[in-house]
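Quick illustration for those who missed Monday's session on complexes.
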Amino acid sequence: MPETVEIFEMGPRDGLQNEKRLIPAAEKIALVDLLSQAGFRRIEVTSFVPARWVPQMADAAEVLAGITRRPGIRYAALTPNLRGYQAARAAGADEVAIFASASEGFSRANLNATVAESLERFAPVAEAARADGIPVRGYVSVVTDCPFDGPTPPGSVARVAAALRDMGCYEISLGDTIGQGRPETIDAMLQAVLNELPPDRLAGHYHDTAGRALENIDASLARGLRVFDAAVGGLGGCPYAPGAAGNVATEAVAAHLETRGFRTWLDMALLREAADMARGMRKE
Ligand code: HMG
Ligand code: MG
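Prediction with 3-hydroxy-3-methylglutaryl-coenzyme A bound:
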């Protein structure tokens, strides 16, 4: 039996958050609805962050209210603090994500906080979600390279991943935020993180800036990871990480996994359609 690898679709959030044109909510809703037909079990729809920080996500509640929910799919949202969590809950997010950095430089730029302060801010989010029965995912960013602090020590990634685990995150997604990881650095990072968490609680979130995301996915498959984040059309990037380019494209990851003998259970024709739609949003 071929093994299954899950792709967690990031397009509506990580894919669109950095686009300059303010994309109307109706277009985002159409993208989520198309993605809902393609076979994903989890789709990251939006984030509940101040509009001043990420103007593109200011319509978070409107987008979540407008999508057609398919049974069996969890519609997720990023929540930087308790206020964001409460708004995400009110808008009907099925799961939330808290997002920390492995480096101080990126933590300051992206969260206006030290790593320790950000973890303190996430604790009440995790606590509230536990009380509400809402699954919480954790991100660790800049897992191999930071645009401010340079190469990231693997031990720093392991420490932050462990802190997020201790808060109750069911899965930790490891972000190569600026897409500078190489199979060797990804492998060294995973080796450290695997001392804290088993591979079935980890996901790879690799941006494709240097065109090495698929190689980095291969290195992660070899370490036992079976969940990868990707965005249709290869859109994306973090506005607070200079040099961050798109997420690895979902359609490229799905095709790659199939040729490696894994099953994703995704509809490739619908993925291509969604990728065209996402790229069309960028061009207008
Ligand atoms: P801050 O400015 O220090 O926050 O930002 P604050 O607590 O001082 O609040 C500032 C103002 O925002 C206040 O309003 C608050 O009420 C309001 P004012 O009094 O000025 O009128 N506010 C909010 N409004 C709406 N929703 C909220 C909220 N919270 C406060 N939730 C903060 C601190 C953490 C909020 C900010 O730094 C932030 O939101 N950062 C997130 C930036 C972001 O979204 N980055 C992109 C996503 S992360 C990413 O892409 C990486 C990832 O893909 C993985 C990878 O690739 O590595 C996940
Ligand atoms: Mg990202």
